[in-house]
Amino acid sequence: MLTELDQIEETALSTLDEAQDEAALETWRVTHLGRNSPLMGVFDNIGSLPKGERPAIGRRANEVKRALETALAEKAESLRQSSLAHALQAERLDVTLPGRPIRLGRLHPVTQTLREIYRIFAEMGFQVYLSREVETDEYNFQLLNFPPHHPAREMQDSYYIETGHDRGDNPLLLRTHTSPGQIRSMREFAAQDPENPPPVRIILPGMCYRYEQISARYEIQFTQVEGLAIGEHITFGDLKGTISDFGRRLLGQQVRTRFRASHFPFTEPSAEVDFECFLCGGEGCSVCKYTGWLEIMGCGMVHPTVLRNGGYDPLRYTGFAFGMGPERLTMLRHRIEDIRYFWANDLSFLEQF
Ligand SMILES: [Zn+2]
User: Fold this and answer.
1) Cα 153 to Cα 265: distance, rounded to the nearest angstrom
2) Please, is 314 exposed, middle or buried when counting C-beta atoms within 10 Å of its C-beta (0-12, 13-18, 19+)?
């Protein structure tokens, strides 16, 4: 029996080296240490041996079992090590390869124009004032001198918001222009010192909405930037100087500016502002329709009623306001033919800027 155990041990250990992967190792384990292995057969038969032989056989059988288990564990560990070494070799990271470029996003072309406008007016001492996009009829129209049923409202038909409440003459709507921010900002400034309201120097940028027939020139959503300056002794001359300076800083020192009389409910007097065409230098081209001028913004002296509604006494304070469309400026600068490109989310368009 002892000879048989020697034989079992020798056979098992000599075949262990042939196992080169986990599956082969498991097969080896079942063959030599499993339930039906010769070694287990020895254990099963110990009970039938003469009493005197049992301790020696049992001891030897246990020795063989431990030897096989130890050899198995060592072999498993060495297999793990070599497969790890193999993986490290095969999957080694080559840090000398060039990296994959990260695709950088970019600013929307209108945002780029807006930021340039912010920069120029910031240099002139104007702060950015952000106002709400959902407005009341009162702020969007009435306080800006558009009474209910005023004909000028027809040019600014809007999207009204169902509230479930009867708000009478004061429904909620998406703002049709950034001008309600004039009233909100003036009231906020005036609240600081109602007796002596501080001067106002702000620009009001943001998205506006109108119920328009969408076409190459009109969208139902667009941005506006509006400027507002209120103080004592502010004149139309200050307005002209500020706008002309803006034109030069935006388009170049040689750019001339032209003011044409116009009408807006919230300014008096009012004017349209043209900048000399920066594409042809005033010679005349298809973009300026051969006039040499580009219509860029509307402006005027803040109407006394609007000043009063904002908390500024029109007998003591004056001010000017102006407004322009960043989409239009962007279209002119990049010769974009259709305003619908801006909000269509077409990457082939947006990636050009
Ligand atoms: Zn031109």
Assistant:
1) 10
2) middle
Residue with tokens 């003459």: 169
Distance of alpha carbon 17 from alpha carbon 280, whole angstroms: 88
Tell me which residue has tokens 């304070």. Answer: 317
Distance of CA 117 from the midpoint of ligand 1 (Å): 22
Per-residue pLDDT tens digits for 235-261: 999 999 999 999 999 988 999 999 999
Q: What is the pTM of this model?
A: 0.69
Length of the chain: 353
Residues 6+ apart with CB under 8 A from 246: 120, 121, 124
On whether the CB atoms of residues 158 and 235 are closer than 8 A, the answer is no
Cα 107 to middle of ligand 1, angstroms? 27
Q: Assess contact for 183 and 131: CB atoms under 8 A.
A: no
What DSSP string describes 197-232?
PPPEEEEEEEEEE------SS--SEEEEEEEEEEET
Q: How far is the CA of 273 from the centre of ligand 1 (A)?
A: 16
Assign 3-state DSSP to the chain and report helix, strand, coil percentages, each to 5: 45, 20, 40
pLDDT tens, residue by residue, 128-172: 999 999 999 999 999 999 887 778 777 778 888 866 566 777 888
Distance 276 CA to ligand 1 centre (A): 8
Question: How many angstroms is it from 285 CA to the middle of ligand 1?
Answer: 4
